[in-house]
Amino acid sequence: MLKIILKVPHIITPFNECASELSVQNYPLKLHHKRLLAPYTTSERELKAGERLPQVHEEMMVYRDNLFFDEEYIRTFITEARKRKRAVRAAFSATDLSFKEHALPLSTSYTLAGSLYLADLWYYPRGPVADVEPLVIDIPVREMGHYQVPPYMAEKGDLVFQAPLRALIAIDSWVHIFIADAVYGQFSRGERFQKRASEDVGFKLRVLGKSLYEGRQLLECSELVKVGKGCTIDPRAIIKGPTIIGDKVFIGPGAVIDNCIIGDNVTISQGCELMLSVVGNGTFMSFDSKLFMTTIMEDSIVAQNTCLQMCVVGRKTFIGAGNTFTDYNLVPVPIRALDGNGKLREANRPVLGGCVGHNCRIGSGLIIYPARTIESDVVLAVTKERRVIDKDIQYEDSDHHKFKSAGLHKRLYPRTGEAELESW
Description:
Helix content: 10-25%
Shape: globular
CATH topology of the largest domain: Spore Coat Polysaccharide Biosynthesis Protein SpsA, Chain A
Strand content: 25-35%
Number of domains: 2
Radius of gyration: 22 Å
Number of strands: 41
CATH architecture of the largest domain: Alpha-Beta Complex
CATH class of the largest domain: Alpha Beta
């Protein structure tokens, strides 16, 4: 099958990078596509904006490179499309709970067609044609609630997630990375395990056998906790699956890890707690730092006593000690976040953390309000005038412009068409 990739030039704030370059489930999105589609495709071609599809009479898949889909979705889509033997386009019903709750808010990529929303994923059995049918994939959804939110804290009440067993979402906003990693990634993976355990007797017996043989609790056995090569894990650490741990990972005493993806060369120090989170390659987590439903991209550092809930942090970023990323509005007004057009809109979430871009340096003791963003290459330090971050921080607001040694902090991720700003 020929794979056609439609390049999306849209930049995701605050990273100043296209979605295809950002990490989702611990892979740059473009590599995630390559890995999942390798069993189905034999060749590929990238098209830039304005380029036409190649007029060839062969089996073809076309998609925009800001889409995240999991293995279950793409396998089902290709299987159903081949059965029809007609050109099809991925679609969602407007009443689909998971799509309506998590994918549609803040998005700009879907096309409304009657009672359906069309996604930018096509299948052509014999080359491109004009007549394309919508293909709605059955997406079983499991409702999962982890916070009981009192009515005086949020208008929407309890924090509930609609976790699909097959997932597709367009990454138009940083919030969609949070959804793809935590809700469509970790939640869905856990739900698929539970579904398989309840339906597949052989799988259930294999897990029980491993648990008994290893003398561990069910969720801690090697069938559910996959550990890479060269890892050092203190016996006092608690690790519950389904969890994937990469190569050369250090996990210190008292660390607690529950349903996470941990990359290669990661250090998780004493007393750290991680739940439903994705930690990128080369990340260092100092003692007593906490992550809940949070994404940390490659080569970043989270210092001691810092807590991140429902946040996204870019690569090569330092988060100093004792920082607090709040996730509630103190008065029950809707949380707003940046959509795909860079405008503030309701995020459809009663609870949501913040987002920090790439190559940032965040000093100790800051308080960041819900859904605030800090642009790539920013340096923030606590001062008498600024301890609370209650607005989005741009590169122009960075404290390093005031430093005598400002030139030592290089701007690596400028906005599109913008040269590096001088620091004075």
